[in-house]
Amino acid sequence: MKSYATLARRAVRVLGHPNSGWSPADPDDDNAPEIEFRFEITDDGNKNFLLVCHSLDGRYAADTWHETLEEAVAFAQDSYDIAPSEWMMSGPTT
User: Fold this and answer.
1) What is the C-alpha separation between 90 and 23, in angstroms, rounded?
2) How far apart are CA 91 and CA 94, in angstroms?
């Protein structure tokens, strides 16, 4: 799969447990553990995109499907508070 954007290391506060479901917590939730993640936006094998994340300790992982690169970036901003400027872009999508 082609990679379009990466963010090698980003701390995310999480709710839940790795084997029973988890989600990003509010960044200000001091009770939620802060875990280091790697994020990548790849193609899905067709003409769409996957936002893929996994914790650096290997315990947490998730992906979401998006029709466009812009939608994947917007989802990462809404869900993980990742600003578009934080991504290292790999090149054009065509």
Assistant:
1) 27
2) 9
CB-count exposure of residue 4 (10 Å: 0-12, 13-18, 19+): buried
pLDDT of residue 9: 97
Task: Provide the whole-model pTM.
Answer: 0.89
| Side chain identity, residue 44 | D
Phi-psi region of 67 (alpha: psi -120 to 50; beta: other; left: phi over 0): alpha
3-class secondary-structure state, position 80: helix
Give 88: exposed, middle or buried? Use CB within 10 Å, 0-12, 13-18, 19+: exposed
Residue 91 predicted with pLDDT over 70:
no
